[in-house]
Each structure stands twice: as structure tokens, then as C-alpha cells.
Amino acid sequence: MKPEDEQPSEEELREAAALAAALENDAGGGAGAPSDALETAALLRQARAPLTVSPAHEPITAAHVAPALEGRRTPRPRRGRMWIALSVIAPAAAAGWLFFAQRPMQRLRPIQPRIYVAPPAPSSDLLAAQAAATRGGGPAGAALARLDQEMRAYRRQYHEGLRRGHGGTR
Amino acid sequence: MTARGLTLVALTALALGCSKAPRDGEGPWIAEAARRHALADERLAAGDRPAARAELLAVVGASVPTDVPDADSRGVLQDTYFRLAKLDLDARDPRAALADTDLGLSYGKPADLFVANLLIARGAAHEALGNAPAAAEAYHQALAINDRLLAETLGDKADDVPGEAP
Fold first, then answer.
1. Does residue B162 lie in a domain region?
2. Does residue B65 sit within a domain?
């Protein structure tokens, strides 16, 4: 550090004294202080003190600020949050209803015992064709072909019975 | 309606859709099987055996709904395998016919019409392969079931209760 920096000059001392005087005297105090000292003092004062409104301007300021303050005091509409909550709750409730409501209904619903009605009794022609096919040997596939033919009508009858809910075999 | 409202409706519909509602699958499955068999009949009448076979393969290839009683699905599937075996025998492919009967009989061997038919097709396949003892055995089992069914049909109640095929 230079020696000249350690010792303030006379001019610096005067400016410091003027600034100190301007800060100590709130309103018009440092009348003799230079203008730059007054400006600096004003800036420092505003920086450390809250913003004040002069009494003359208070009604005007209040008229502008009051609605905004009132709006902040009242609870904000929670539409955003409400929609998010509904988006989660509604599907969950629907799925829950299906799960919890349907299951008990199924349990309470009288169990419909499946009546295992025997399939239609094979006709004597069908059984005769089947018996002939069990002999084998004969003309190639003739007995089996007849059995296959007899089965067609029986099959239709069987499927129809199953479709009506009278399934089962004996 | 706002975008949020639409989103909410869509999410609710999604949740409802994803919930597994009990469904009755027996009716549609049997109806489809019946339709395929009818189509196979038409294909055979037109002389198109491969197309008929494809229809029957669709029956055995479809997954059976869980609510279809085993007895019902067994009857439908065993009958379909009998038809497939018959088609393979007609096509001079007794090994494929034998495989069809194996698959059919894997569903069970109660002494009923469908099992008897499969045993007959099995006997015919063994016969075509020159395996006379196996053919005779299959024919014999089929004949025993046929005899019981004939007795029941004629009102002559069999003394023993229906049981497994021999």
C-alpha cells in the first residue's frame, strides 16, 4: 500500500465530513454540504430504511394497493389443484367401485350351478356306424366315412345344446 | 368442455376399461367352433380338404376361455381331433392321424362317444401303418364303449357306472 493511501487527503476528509453531516441531519441538515454528498446520503438512507410514503400520498397509494392486498388475503381458487386431484381420484374411484362393488355382487349372486345335461343321446344309426367302424379291415375308410357322415347331424345337435348352456358329457 | 375435463373423462374411461369385468366366453367360443365345423363341411362338399382342415385347426388352435367347463371343451376338441384324424387318414397320412388322436385323447378318456371315435381313428391309423396289435387294441376299446352307449340308448341300463375307458 502506498503511504499516500494510508493518509486521506484534506479534500477526502472534507467530503467525508460533509457526508457524515448529511446523514446525521435528516431533513435539510447539511445545508452547506455539497450536492453529491447529499445524493449519496439519500441513497444510503433509502437502502437501509424501508420505503416510506409521505402522508399526503397515502390515500392514493392505499387505493391502489388495497385491492391487491385483499386479493392475496382471500384464499386463491384451487382449481388447478382440484383438477389434478380429480384426475387421480375419479379413475381410482371408478376402478375401485368395479373391484369392490362387483366382487361382493358376484359373491352374493346365487351361484348358478351348471346343469351338466348329457349330450344328446346318439341315434341307433350313429352307434351302428360306430360299431361297424370298430371292426376295421373292410373297404378302405368306408365304415369310417359313414361314421363321419353320421356324426355331422349329431355334432350340430351337440353344439346347439352347448350354446344353450346345457353342456357336459357323459 | 375444457381440455382438463376431457382428460378426466378419458382417464376415467381408461380406468373402467382396464378393470377386468367378468365376461362369459363360453357362448362365443362354442359358436365359433360350430361355425368352423359348418365351414369345414362346406369345404369338404366342395372337395377342398386343405381348407376344411384349416377350419378345424382353427378350432383346436383357439384358446379356450377359462369359464368353459372342461367337459364342454373336451367334447368339442376331441370331436375336432377326430375329424382332423379322419382327414389325415383320407390324405394317406396315418402318422399325422395318430398324432391327432394322441392330442385328442390327451384331454381325457371317459367312456363316451367322442373317445370311442378317437379310438376308432387310432385303430385305423395303426392299421394303415401295419401295426395290427395296436389297431386291434384300439378297436376293442372303442367297441367296449360303443356297446355301453348302445345299451344306454336302448334303455338297457348297464350294471356298472360309467368310468374310464379301458
1. no
2. yes
